[in-house]
Write a structure and sequence with these properties.
single chain, 335 residues, Immunoglobulin-like, 60s Ribosomal Protein L30, Chain: A, four-stranded antiparallel β-sheet
Length: 335
Amino acid sequence: MNAYALTPQQKRAKAKEVQLRKREAAKRKAEKKRAAKLKAAKKQRIKDGKPLLYVYSYNLQTGEPMPATHITVQDLQAKPNKKPKISKPTDNKHARVSKGLPTGSYWIVAAKTGFFTSDTIRFAHKEDEDTIKVYLYPETRLTFTVTDSLTSRPVAANIIVRNDAREKVMQTTSDSIHCVLAVLLDDRVPFYTVEATAANYFPYRDTISDPTRFDGVVMSPKEIKSFVLHNIYFATGKTHILDSSEPALNELYQFLVARPQQNIRIVGHTDNIGSDRSNQILSEGRCQEVKQAMIDRGIHAERIEVEGRGEMDPIVPNDTEDHRQMNRRVEIVLQ
C-alpha cells in the first residue's frame, strides 16, 4: 500500500479545503471588482459635478441608528415650492440615505413619528463624498384634563404651556365635554409652565418639572365660599399627615400661591367615634398640621386661621363607615 495514499476521509477534507479557497478567492475578486466599480462611479460623479452625499440618522438619547427617518435636503437658495433634492426615508440596513448631488450649499432636516424634528443643518457639499449625521430626540407626550375643583367636571378654559424661556409651546382651549389635552414636552427642557384662564374661575398656574407627576389642571370657581380638601389622609386617631396627602397639600399650596391676597380658615371635622373632647382635640391638631404644611412651603402664617369642629357638623349621619369617612374631612373656608 502506498504510504502517501489518502484515505477517503482525507480526500473529502482536501476537496472541501480546495473549494473553500476557491470561494474565498472568488469573494476577494468580487470585492475588489465592487471597490473598483465604486471608485470609478465616484470619479464619474466628481467629474459630473455630483459627489455623493451620505446622511445618517441617530437617536440623540440612545445613540442608536434610526431607520425610516424622513430626510429632506434642499439648496439654501431654493424657492419654497421647489422640489427637494432628497426627500425619502433612511434605509433599514444603515439608517441612511445617499445621493449624488452637485457641489453647493444645502440644508438638511430629519423627521420621524415620536421624535422632535432635528435641528436644521447647513453645510457646503464639496468635490468629494460627504457624510452628515442628524440626531432626533424622543418626544414626551403629556396628556391632562382641565376640571372644576368642586365638581370634577370638565372646564372650557384657555390653556397656555410655556417652556423655561417663557416661549409658548402650546395655546389652545380645553374641551368642556371631554377636556383631555395633549402637549409634546422635551425632556431636555428643565421645566414647563401651565397657565389656564376661564370665565368665573380663578386663574391657574403651575410648573411642571416631572410630567409623570402632573395630575392636570384643576380650576377653582370664583363664587365659592368654601371647599373640601379631598384626598388628605391622617394616621388613624392621630394628627400626623400621611405621605399620600402630598398631592392634596400641593393643590392647596398652588391655590394660595395663585391668590396672594386670599386668606383662609382651615376647619377640621371628625366622625363620632370617641369622646367629644378627644374628637375636638383631634380636629384642632389636624388643622394645625395642614397649616404648618403650608407655612413650610412658604405661605405666611397670618393668612391662615384654624378651627376644630370635632364631631359637631356632620354632613351625613354617622351610621355607616362610608358616612363616617365623609364626615372626617378638612374644609377650606375663604376669608
